[in-house]
Amino acid sequence: MGSPQPPPLAHVFRGTFVHSSRSEPMEILHEHLLGVDDSGTIVFLEQSDQQEQLAKKWGFRTSDIRELSNYEFFMPGMVDTHIHAPQYSFTGTRVDLPLLQWLTTYTFPTEAKYKDSDFAEEVYTRVVRRTLKNGTTTACYFATIYTDTSLLLAEILDKFGQRAFVGKVCMDVNDSVPQYKEITADSVRETERFVKELLEKKYPRVQPIITPRFGPSCTEDLLHALGNLAQAHDLHVQSHISENEEEIKVVEKMFPAYQNYTELYDKNKLLTSKTVMAHACHLSEEELKLFSLRGAAISHCPSSNFSLCSGILNVQMVLKHDVKLGLGTALGLDDVIGNFEVGKEFDALLINTKASDSPFDLFSADNFEDTVQKFLYLGDDRNISEVYVAGKQVVPFSSSV
Ligand code: GUN
Ligand code: FE
């Protein structure tokens, strides 16, 4: 008797795969075969000359293989470590004020509208579709203070198949827009309800994340309770830190007993190896050392930092202190996604560098590395012909969503 046949594969692709590995920042693998099983896991990535043995072992036929053309390649899906879903409605506008004034003039009044589920459904559906279409296979979302529409965002994410963390925003201080804040005890109770109800949905790839907005929006009591909640359920945490100098001064004034902003989060159990803090432009070396010690990550947001003139993150300094840094990584998912290693889930973009409406041109002198680079610098969703999350094709959108 021979060994039993494994279940049929969901996909076998043959062509070029571009990713980064521990040893190489960019690896271009031409003439390779990649197999994905029906749980969405990559089961092999080998040179095409291994086809016969692989076909025997995994039980696929030549006709099951999807052949890429020589101007297509697969790359890993993109990860957005910090995105505010409700702010998508005004993205690209209203960047004429510094952070604190921007929050009170535009952001808080807009977020207050997400009590309305029809409004929330429209914007949340659009942000999920737009980001998926642009190749974001994983995103870490801030929603708003409203539990029900934050749960609605999670439902929409599950429906469209994006991998995500979703945070119900917590804030119990807001003197400028008092209608957009919570009572401390309600914020904690609603966060518990949010986490419980989201976990009960058992969405395979949408998880809750504890989300105190930032120092100036929270009392110490709220931070303390959220830290305990994160610890009790071993949850991820996201917030903002040291984005602009005025914000830091407010934090110093509100919390004089703490040495610095990082200590405020740390002493309240919010700085852990499952924490991602956005911006962090003005952290001292001492604070970076604490980030490193706790294994907490920084989400670098250069576009926002420039738009609101908040500051410039010294990336070299962050890396020197061995702090995890992501434009789009460091969510602690590196053993699940990030490249095409066997055992990881297949989150991938099929790139067509010669799409009919491609925003860039290729010339005979371009080698493949140039082609990849042109896509990275000049390409957009017109070049992203298909998007996969855990082996499931999520773009083009299925007619059922
Ligand atoms: N700090 C607290 N809330 C926000 C927000 O919504 N956007 C940015 N950029 N910084 C914040
Ligand atoms: Fe933010």
Describe this structure in words.
The chain is an alpha/beta fold and 401 residues long. 33% of the residues lie in helices and 23% in strands. The protein has 12 helices and 17 strands. The strands form 3 sheets. Strands 6, 7, 8, 9, 10, 11, 12, 13 and 14 form a 9-stranded parallel beta sheet that branches. It has a 4-stranded mixed beta sheet with strand order 3-2-1-4. α5 links the parallel β9 and β10. α4 runs parallel beside α5 and α5 runs parallel beside α6. It is globular and about 70 Å long. The structure holds guanine (GUN) and fe (iii) ion.
Rg, rounded, reads 22 Å
Order of helices and strands: EEEHEEEHHEHEEHEHEHHEHEHHEEHEE
Q: What percentage of the residues does DSSP assign to strands (E)?
A: 15-25%
User: What's the β-strand tally?
Assistant: 17
Nearest-integer average pLDDT: 96
Bound molecules: guanine, fe (iii) ion
How would you sum up the major sheet?
9 strands, parallel
- Structural category is alpha/beta
- List unreliable stretches of 5+ residues: none
Oligomer: single chain
Q: Percent of residues in helical segments? A: 25-40%
DSSP helix count?
12
Alpha-carbon distance between the two ends: 45 Å
Overall shape: globular
Could you give a quick summary of the protein structure above?
This protein is an alpha/beta fold. The chain has helices spanning 51-58, 99-111, 117-133, 147-160, 184-201, 220-233, 245-254, 261-267, 285-294, 302-307, 315-320, 368-378, and strands at 11-19, 27-36, 42-47, 65-67, 72-76, 78-84, 136-142, 163-167, 169-170, 206-212, 236-241, 275-279, 297-299, 324-326, 348-352, 384-389, 392-395. It has 12 helices and 17 strands.
